[in-house]
Amino acid sequence: MSATGTPRDFDNLIDEMKWRGFFEQCTDEEGLRKLLASERVTAYAGFDPTADSLHVGSLLPIMGLVHIQRHGHRPIGIVGGGTAMVGDPSGKTELRQMLTLDQIEINLEGIRTQLSHFIEFGDDAGLLLNNADWLKDYGYIEFLRDVGRHFSVNQMLARDSVKSRMEKGLSFIEFNYMILQAYDFMVLNRDHGCRLQVGGNDQWGNICSGIDLCRRFNQSEVYGLTFPLLSTATGAKMGKTADGAVWLDADRTPPYDFYQYWVNVDDRDVSRFLRLYTLLDRAHIEELEKLEGAQIREAKKVLAHEVTAQVHGPQEALKAEKAAAALFAGAGDASTVPSSERPAADFAGDGLSLLDALVDSGLLKSKGEARRMIRQNAVRVEGEQVSDEMFMLTEELARDGKIALQVGKKRHHHINLV
Fold first, then answer.
1. pLDDT at 331 over 50
2. Of 303, 328, 353, at which residue does a domain stop?
3. Are 253 and 247 in contact (CB under 8 A)?
4. Concatenated DSSP letters for 121-179?
5. Of 4, 164, 330, 332, which cross-links 322 as Cys (Cβ 3.0–4.6 Å)?
6. Which pTM value belongs to this model?
7. Is residue 5 part of a domain?
8. Which band of pLDDT confidence, cut at 50, 70 and 90, is reported for residue 54?
9. Which pairs from 106-110 meet CB under 8 Å and 24+ separation?
10. Number of compact structural domains in the chain
């Protein structure tokens, strides 16, 4: 599925970015406005393959590239096979785990597939590149001589991405990341005419270093635009839950759970998320923003449907919506609720411990946590609250060949007896 839509007038991009909430800092807003209004601009964002899937935190730069393409410009997605071998210290409090070449290659393939789901690549529409192509064979001495000599250590130490790590320690390999990212911008500017880099606001220092390198190497005027670093209204990091990250990969976060993440966001976040994470037009979003009180739930359903459809496709979004209706309104199709299979024999006789079932299903991480949730009256079996930590699941509890477990209001799991 491509989210590119119909290209619009070049000069509307910054205004839309500002209205939607993407615009945090720009190295030269006036100059960038003139450039965007006068020609088709190539812009890039980078994604380091630290896992085989991106997560919700990566949706902001992805949507930024989507809007760039929708307005008629050309996006470049950089999958950092080279920089992943070093690790970006930006926004991190400790050294990233070093990845093997095999791990990086597996991660690269997963991320390439996900980016292609949002952005049209190929021909002149957009490019999907791997910076290992120009970094991995560059000799260390040659790189220091050609590129490193243009960097001031004093300036590098002043960058926020470095200063924030000085107290806990910054490895020499991470210290070099800024130079590698700057070199990426220079190569993209030289070889592909790239004039704009976009990314999270924690990338500001790295982007500025790239702009300086483009001037020195290519005598080219280029620009940087950063997006805000988002947290939810409750202060939680965007895309993080008690169960961990919300992934874009359906095997890591099932579409139903993904839908539930969005339909259960804080009321205060709905307007902001509709602007940032959907492609609904301004008039539609502003109508939804007028909803108050219990009606906000309808805006949340629209948000959840739109984002799930973009990530997993319209059919999966509809399935998740119907599954939610089945659980919360007593109607619809519950077939997409997360589920697992167990032999019916496990439930014969004394049955299966509820504590084991909660942990084995992934609803809770440990028996200790399961006990605490039961004591807090947060666990239900087939819709009935359970307060006994020694509760056993037996065949008699099954309905239509399954036993429904629930933790809190949001987490559900069906055990299918086979």
1. no
2. 328
3. yes
4. -BTTTBEEEETHHHHTTS-HHHHHHHTGGG--HHHHHHSHHHHTTTTT---HHHHTHHH
5. 332
6. 0.77
7. no
8. very high
9. 106/52, 107/49, 107/50, 107/51, 107/52, 108/49, 108/79, 108/81, 109/52, 110/49, 110/51, 110/52, 110/53, 110/249
10. 3
